Amino acid sequence: MGANKYTSQVISFLLCLCLLGCEMVQEVDIPPHQPKLTLRAILDNSGQRPAGFYDEDKVYIGMSQGILESDNLQGVDNATVRLYNAAGQVVEEYAHKGVMIEGYRSLWGVYMPVSGFQPLAGETYTMRAEAPGFEPIEATTSVPALPVVTAVSFDEREAGDLGYGLEIEGTLRLTIQDKADEKNFYRVRVYALDSAYQATGSTAYSIDPDTDIELGNTEEVELNSLFSDEFYTSGIISFSSDIRVFSYGFEKGTGKEIPVKYLEVQVTQVTKEEYLFQKTLQAQNNTEGNPFAEYSNVYSNVKNGYGVLSGMSITRVVVELQE
């Protein structure tokens, strides 16, 4: 009798679990996704880039997709893209550069400026884009002033064992004159140049990022990473890092080795929009694949769409290496 009573209790308990499990399974109706235009652009007032490190003038126009879609994001090739100043005047138009080559889309969704307008520091600009079948989008940003770099030095030394004789090693130090009453955002990068001041394709990296300057417990200032001036209350930002960079590059077409003669130190100041976009994108990437991580939305300042329009300016200082 006792055994039967125990068996009945177990069966009742299992039935309760089954019923509870049925109650916990919920079907969620996901509404159909209405694609919206996306925008990615950076306005830069630094002028020509003789070393040819990148092309910040380009604008990317794409389309969004639903959360359950796994296809690669698609670019939009028939958009009208214009840049306006604060007075509402058109100062630049952009033309699509994508081409179809044997079924492969190259630069699809990439737009380049037509007239070569150079944005002015301190000015506000609005970019608008529209395409058939989509709601028009727009975003507004400004262009920061050029960073004021008051000192740069590179103390070269013999590369360590991990350099294998193929890298240049030393300590980079620089000082930025910051406006203490403003919130500013910076990034420091170092590129290798040959004797003709052309980029060799090599970018310096920190030997040990843990030796770079650390700001409180919230943000570490590292080479190649964006950082805020929040903890620099004196108006002086002192940056120091032990770095390495490849000691040669290769000539295009011939493959001939080209020795590195100079280092170009770039101090970039970006707008708050770019800083927030990069930081939230990094946070989302850090949680990717972790089902227990809290989801992080990527910052956007695009009205009626997604993406970011931001501004940047770059101060360049060239340092000659030891013979």
Tell me what you see in this structure.
The chain has 323 residues and is mainly beta. The protein has 2 helices and 22 strands. The chain has helices spanning 2-24, 272-287, and strands spanning 37-44, 59-63, 80-85, 90-96, 99-101, 104-106, 110-113, 124-130, 137-142, 148-157, 167-177, 185-193, 199-203, 205-206, 214-215, 219-220, 227-228, 236-246, 248-250, 257-259, 262-270, 306-320. The strands form 5 sheets. Strands 1, 2, 3, 4, 7, 8, 9, 12, 13, 17, 21 and 22 form a 12-stranded mixed β-sheet that branches. It has a 4-stranded antiparallel β-sheet with strand order 10-11-18-14, with no helix packed on it. Strands 5-6 form a two-stranded antiparallel sheet. The longest helix is centred in the first third of the chain and has 23 residues, at 2-24. It is globular and about 75 Å long.
Keyword list:
323 residues; 2 helices; Immunoglobulin-like; mainly beta; 12% helix; 2 domains
Short characterization:
By secondary structure, this protein is mainly beta.
Main sheet: strands, sense, barrel: 12 strands, mixed
Distance between the termini: 97 Å
Q: Radius of gyration from the CA trace?
A: 26 Å
How many domains? The number is 2
- Shape by Cα distribution: globular
Q: How many helical stretches?
A: 2
Quickly give the structural class.
mainly beta
Flag low-confidence runs: 214-218
The SSE order reads HEEEEEEEEEEEEEEEEEEEEEHE
How big a fraction of the residues is strand?
35-45%
